[in-house]
From TrEMBL:
GO BP field: protein catabolic process; proteolysis
EC number(s) recorded for this UniProt protein: 3.4.21.53
Active site annotation, chain numbering: S271, K316
Classification lineage: Bacteria, Bacillati, Actinomycetota, Actinomycetes, Mycobacteriales
PANTHER family: ATP DEPENDENT LON PROTEASE FAMILY MEMBER
Entry GO MF terms: ATP binding; ATP-dependent peptidase activity; serine-type endopeptidase activity
Record key words, sorted: Hydrolase, Membrane, Protease, Serine protease, Transmembrane, Transmembrane helix
Swiss-Prot/TrEMBL catalytic activity: Hydrolysis of proteins in presence of ATP
Protein name, per record: endopeptidase La
Family from the record: Belongs to the peptidase S16 family.
Length: 373
């Protein structure tokens, strides 16, 4: 019987097919198997690379534009800069502090995606998280810097507004001799009936004491119900000194009877100081420091009002522009870097002190020419 050759959709292995047909089917199946094997082999490096992209982390941290916060506005229903116990002027416009976003634990795919966006900067992780410190230690230090910037912002603003200085309690050790008797922010006016106007005068009196002595302290407190007080403290011992231990830290600082609270959580570092100070000045003066404009900025600040440089200035400028700012206050030492990456529609104003920042905003409001980078 002659063999049958299928010209249509025949099936291999069907009984009754000719021998030649079965051989042909065998060859076809073998070819298909080889092609599948070749494809699988080719896919191995692709799959491996995909796993590499998604699973392997890289020793880099991404830095980019972060959120901005209006120091004249509210966050979570609270005033960012809340002043109680005195008249506060209504404000307009914006005085936004700026931040840098930070992403750690990046996979290779995330790092490549962020880098290709053109908005993010990849830096070696050790520059952000030094290997000799834990992440928790660094986060705690950043939080401490932020709290310190709040205190300096208050002192700088009150100094600018000409409030008189006093021996001010900056910290109270707990447990310690003064715990429960003095509070942070108290102004000490007299020790055992002797007036003290400076920290030097206060320390000179303290050095005449010994452990176990009792000190009578006259103080003022930021409390409308109990603004004046007197307390007696029995001095303790401290191995670092041979005189009595009071258990407080004091500084010479401008003092006012009202309270200033800053209500921003989960923000680290000291660079909000300038914008916090400007918000305090604005709320305690005309309330129109920025002439209703959208002003953003950055900069550390000392208690005496000196504005210091910060990191990530170009990222902060992008964040400010994206938020709608038209004026950006730049620490004088950051001007060269800021000019290297200008943002359309964002006017760069150079400031070196709180006074210069206030004067620059007044100049802008009056249609004048502020100092520029």
């Amino acid at each position: 019987m002659p063999s049958t050759v299928l010209t249509g959709a025949g099936w291999c292995g069907v009984p009754g097919h000719a021998v030649s047909e079965r051989a042909r089917c065998s060859l076809t199946v073998g070819g298909v198997n080889r092609r599948i094997l070749t494809l699988l082999i080719a896919l191995v490096p692709v799959v491996a690379f995909g796993v590499l992209l998604s699973a392997v982390t890289v020793p880099f941290v991404s830095l980019g534009p972060g959120p901005t916060f209006d120091t004249l506005g509210e966050v979570d229903g609270k005033e960012v800069v809340d002043i109680t116990g005195t008249e506060v002027k209504p404000t307009s416009g914006h005085l936004n502090m700026t931040t840098v976003s930070q992403r750690d634990g990046l996979t290779l795919a995330q790092a490549l995606t962020l880098w290709m966006s053109g908005r993010e900067q990849l830096v070696p992780r050790e520059l952000v998280y030094p290997p000799d410190k834990s992440k928790d230690e660094i986060d705690e230090a950043n939080t401490a810097d932020f709290r310190n910037s709040e205190a300096n912002a208050e002192y700088a603003a009150l100094s600018y507004l000409k409030y008189p200085r006093a021996v001010t309690v900056e910290s109270v050790t707990d447990p310690g001799p003064s715990a429960g008797k003095l509070k942070e922010g108290d102004a000490i006016d007299a020790v055992n009936g002797k007036p003290v106007a400076t920290v030097d005068e206060f320390q000179a009196l303290l050095k005449t004491t010994k452990p176990g002595d009792e000190l009578v302290l006259d103080f003022r407190r930021k409390d409308e119900n109990d603004p004046l007080g007197t307390t007696t403290v029995e001095l303790g011992t401290n191995p670092d000194r041979d005189y009595g231990y009071l258990g407080i830290g004091v500084i010479d600082a401008p003092w006012a009877s009202f309270k200033i609270d800053f209500n921003l959580a989960n923000i680290g570092g000291p660079s909000a100081g300038l914008m916090f100070s400007l918000a305090v000045v604005d709320k305690l003066t005309s309330g129109d420091l920025n002439d209703g404009k959208f002003v953003a900025g950055t900069g550390t600040i000392t208690g005496d009002g000196e504005v210091g440089s910060i990191g990530g200035i170009t990222h902060k400028m992008v964040g400010a522009r994206d938020a709608g700012a038209t004026v950006f206050l730049v620490p004088a030492d950051n001007c060269a870097e800021a000019k290297s990456d200008p943002q359309d529609g964002l006017e760069l104003v150079k400031v070196g002190t709180l006074t210069e920042a206030v004067d620059a905003l007044n100049a802008i409001s009056a249609g004048g020419e502020p100092p520029r980078c």
